Amino acid sequence: MVISDTQSGLAMAIAVAMTESALFPPVVPLVSRNRYFTRKKLLKKLEANGNGARINALLDSMRASSPTRRPTDTEDHNSWILHHPSALNMFEEIMRASKGKQIVVFLDYDGTLSPIVEDPDRAFITTEMREAVRDVAKLFPTAIVSGRCRAKVYNFVRLSELYYAGSHGMDIKGPAKGHTHRKGNQTVLCQPAREFLPMIDEVYKALMENVKYIPGAKVENNKFCLSVHYRCVEEKKWGELGDQVKLVIKDYPQLRLTQGRKVLEIRPTIKWDKGNALEFLLESLGYAESDDVLPVYIGDDRTDEDAFRVLRERGQGLGILVSKTPKETNASYSLQEPSEASYAVPQTFGGVEEAVRTKALE
């Protein structure tokens, strides 16, 4: 479906500039003058203590990726918003920029469709949010791209008309049938890391054994990757947890350690991430080389930066970061986390249902 007028455009809380160049303002580093640092600079500062000894690099990285919340300086926040304006304030521009474009919607799950919670098994989507996403999928190809196991995300969302990309995009499956957006009749399926499954299961069992004595630690098997959550672990135990994780994976050079929000991620070393998943889905939908497509990606985590970067490199599409605090990002626009996203998506996505009814009456 190609949008031909503003009334039938993407009724959702995302922002876009009136010109193509404005979609991708320059990435603004978070500099020390405003008491923000890039992660690289912050880790360099943390590498040594008073006597010059090197601090555990993984522990430093865990701290850097999980900063203690503090009130945001108004001047700093305003400066960041200037370069990453609120998507809510740019709605009319979205409608104009989407004219004549095929919109494809990509959504992260945790922190975007559901709030970040202490127990990852209880990150439930609200009924209102589910209905809003259902309405969006009536008009636009819609995918959920998550670090979670694809089956677990599906059990949370329970919408069969969506595309699901689990394990940071390493497990992709589309609707089996009856989906009007896809060109052709074949089911979309992509699992580039299948050969790693036995190894990942082996590491999962070892991690479960090694961290069971650390209160609050939780190991989640996401099929093609593993997550070690430390949101409920006392900070004084983070070093011990990191050591146990490193101890397990040191004998598996085919696996790599990455980080998210209070979570350590263990993934295969293959070059595949959420950005690759976005490109694969666009190609599967027949829009890989199209100039008339507008991919929209909304996410909150460091792993979503891979997708934001792809959009920026394509010079096509729209990345929206969900975050309360300024951070370095390749996204162009922002939404607050989590309350604004929880409010904005149902309220504005709900307008799609009206667009569907209007088109049905024409």
TrEMBL record:
Keywords: Hydrolase, Membrane, Stress response, Transmembrane, Transmembrane helix. Coiled coil: none annotated. Its cofactor is a divalent metal cation. SUPFAM superfamilies: HAD-like. The keyword DNA damage does not apply. Removes the phosphate from trehalose 6-phosphate to produce free trehalose. Trehalose accumulation in plant may improve abiotic stress tolerance. The lineage of its organism: Eukaryota, Viridiplantae, Streptophyta, Embryophyta, Tracheophyta. Its EC number is 3.1.3.12. This is Trehalose 6-phosphate phosphatase. GO terms for biological process: trehalose biosynthetic process.
